[in-house]
Amino acid sequence: MTTIGHDQQLQTSSSSAPPLKKRTFSGIQPSGDIHLGNYLGAIRNWVRTQTEYDNIYCIVDLHAITLPIDPQELRQNIRRLAAIYLACGLDTRYCKLFVQSHVRQHAEASWILGCFTPMGWLNRMTQFKAKAGENQETVGAGIYMYPVLMACDILLYQTHLVPVGEDQRQHLELTRDLAQRFNHLYKQEVFTIPEPLIREVGARIMSLTDPTQKMSKTNPNPNSRINLLDDPKTIKQKIARATTDSLRLIRFDPERPGINNLLTIYEALTERSREEIEAEFEGKGYGELKARLTEVVVATLEPIQRRYQEYMRDPAELEAILRAGADAVRPIAEATLQRMKDVIGLG
Ligand code: ATP
Ligand code: MG
Q1: Cα-to-centroid distance, 37 and ligand 1 (Å)
Q2: Backbone angles phi, psi at 74, to 5 degrees
Q3: Could you count the other beta carbons within 10 Å of the beta carbon of residue 302?
Q4: Residue 218: CB within 6 Å of ligand 1?
Q5: Where in the chain is the domain with CATH 1.10.240.10?
Q6: What atom in ligand 1 is closest to the CA of residue 27?
Q7: Is the pLDDT assigned to residue 18 strictly greater than 90?
């Protein structure tokens, strides 16, 4: 894993003036409870670099309908995710926050780019295989086309950097390939070629119950993840039940995924070195590691949960923030979409 792109040559669309700062774009699906993996792999990093970049962060609701979801739940999840973004520290002075379906250009661009996407490229996407599983014949086509919509999300904003977790690396590669292919086909710089921004620590948090799989919102087992809104008792129970092994030795070791994952979460939250952490638990048992980890998780989440409750008390304010965000980004998306249509010969 690398931190990439800081000295990359800026490439901007000739149709818009280059921004003063590099632009970041990223998003989370309102498909379930937001968990520690989403926080450590994505949101925390967005917050930390928000003054450095020109940021656009999205609630990608069109992605959340790729798997069945109850309408009430989807609506709730959108509002909750907005409150979580703000509670984690995203600041509207530095970030534009919006809901994907409020900017219609995403869906329109996605149809167009889909027509330029070789089927073979989509067939190679591992996340489709993982999510569709045995149901490849019956799942909706949206889950297959998801990477094209994600590419449009990024490309519409002439994004330079995409801060995401490790699981999105393959989709980012596809986005770059699609953008390069389109630019090349029409011999014009319609799209900026984006770079992934994947941090070394926290980019891949694993499930607590099956540490060979990543922690996910849509895993049907609630014990597999720690949600940002879990109360201390639930967090304690989930960590106590987390899969370990019988070796009784506390070491970072990818061959021992259970312990390795607990230590990785501890490392990401305490921001201490691996040597220091192994020294702290020298001669100690798994019970002590789990107890310390519980303390650190609870202490991290407590202020986030407090702020979350405050934002949730004012739905009108949340709505106003999201509306202002959509109004601010729509012209950027429209300029790129118009350029796509112009070079293709549409309209
Ligand atoms: P879903 O099961 O609906 O796909 P998810 O947990 O994978 O949910 P996404 O909305 O797909 O969450 O991803 C949002 C962001 O969180 C992305 O940047 C993704 O890379 C990151 N992310 C998701 N899971 C993890 C994880 N386990 N560890 C680190 N980062 C993660
Ligand atoms: Mg996902």
Answers
A1: 6
A2: -60, -45
A3: 10
A4: yes
A5: 222-310
A6: 14
A7: no
Between the CA of 114 and the centroid of ligand 1 the distance, in Å, is 23
Say what percent of the chain tops pLDDT 70.
95
Confidence of residue 101 (pLDDT cuts 50, 70, 90): very high
Q: Where in the chain is the domain with CATH 3.40.50.620?
A: 23-203+314-344
For residue 115, give both structure tokens.
């027509």
Q: Is 165 annotated as a binding residue?
A: yes
Q: Does the annotation mark 217 as catalytic?
A: yes
- Residue 2 is predicted with a pLDDT of 37
Q: Which two tokens stand for residue 124?
A: 């190679």
Annotated active-site residue 238? The verdict is no
**Is 233 annotated in the active site?**
no
Architecture of domain 23-203+314-344: 3-Layer(aba) Sandwich (3.40)
How far apart are alpha carbons 83 and 89 in whole angstroms?
A: 10
CA 18–ligand 1 middle distance (angstroms): 30
Three-state SS at 195: strand
CATH superfamily, domain 222-310, is Tyrosyl-Transfer RNA Synthetase (1.10.240.10)
